[in-house]
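Researcher: Next entry in the queue.
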Amino acid sequence: MAQRRLKILLPLATPYVRRYNEEIGVLDLSYQTPRPETIAGAKHDWELVIGMEVHAQISSNAKLFSGASTKFGNEPNANVAFVDAAMPGMLPVINEFCVEQAVRTGLGLNAEINLWSAFDRKNYFYPDLPQGYQISQLYHPIVGEGEVIVYTEPGIARRVRIERIHMEQDAGKSIHDMDPNMSFVDLNRTGVALMEIVSRPDIRGPEEAAAYVGKLRQILRYLGTCDGNMQNGNLRADVNVSVCLPGQYEKYVESGDFKHLGTRCEIKNMNSMRFIQQAIYVEARRQIAILEAEGFVKQETRLYDADKGETRSMRSKEEAHDYRYFPDPDLLPLEIEQTWVDDIAAKLPELPDQKKARFMDEFGLSEYDANVLTAELDTASYFEAVAAGRDGKLAANWVFNELFGRLKKHDTDITESPVTPEQLGGVIDLITKGEINGKIAKALFEIVYNEGGDPAEIVEARGMKQVTDTSAIETTVDEVIAANPAQVERAKANPKLVGWFVGQVMKATGGKANPKTVNELVSAKLGF
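Model: Structure for this entry, 528 residues:
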């Protein structure tokens, strides 16, 4: 693999950074502390410190402790088993596939897999939580420390440390706008399996926070462990925000002591990258105003109101002891074998960073192009099918310039593209063989997009082949030159006007002449 220049900005010890970089073949190394996002206050500057708890719904047809369906959009309370409704005597039974999905996620995040884990009861009252407690994993999560590598800009990477991933069950949904006097409860989501992915407070700005969630979402989708649908609530984030004076974050990095980072507030249930960024800015400014007025930031859970552009208090921030955690008596500790974990690891798909590096090396793509083409697994798979055995850069140009533009115009997803990879590959093959030129290729693409069909057969049936007969092209060149004597004189004084003659010849041949041959003949005839 060819080496690439990459600057790593990590709050880590040098040996670990060196090991990481050696694994991916990096030429340039930097051991700087990440550059923070700075917000100016009335008295002095402040730095942002952000940690995130991302709740990802596990992709599974059944819930974590029951066989009830997880299908989104069913009638209210249609996906409810007796155990989900907390009927007396009903006992939870662990869904092995959900455990496998959690392990797969941990492996995809380079995390430690705990072969022994246990479930706890987290006690709190919600009307849409029939049991009166949530089954979660506080003391012994299934996944330990891991990492997410976030590219904040081309060539610059940041490592956000994962503290833990634990499994837990989701709550239901309360509906307050169907009746003026009553609220309704839909238990379809109750018991759906979640992974809570908890980061360290390594994120230093709103854009980096959104990039982190985006990268995490991308990895989960590649792994197939969460569909990442934020609109449906299948991926949502709780954002912990605090501010500190310059230099205090470095003290945290050195000591791991959170007291240097200021009091944090949690912004709950963020399901939009844009809103995550907006909420962080708003909350940071609120905290700065309090601190500069010599007040104290109260640790609490807040909600972001996008319409008003403000965060508002939801409740005081609970600590672990407030939930009265204790081991769930209905569930035995979860013990898994290393051989099972190894088998899952052996079947992991190629992940985004690996695919990006391979696309750059195998197809000669720029980092930007490789980033775009690997952003979604469906896009990467489509491109790879088009580029197989062909010029990778040419394939990328056609995917970017023709396919993406047309799909965007018609608001169509690449999975529903009217042009298959085989059809687009066929167009590229005709260009490579010299049977069609770029202008004809665009017209051919238009036909395939709207009507379908085999590109080679369409070219043959409609007489769209490029004219390569030099004598025939030369005849047309002579006719164009003879018909435009004044332009010939101007062209002799200004060689750039050769392009005008080329255009006239292409027009006269219906765009079928080989442009290279036309250019050579015109230049020769005009004495250039």
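Model: The first strand starts at residue 7 and ends at 9.
Researcher: Noted, moving on.
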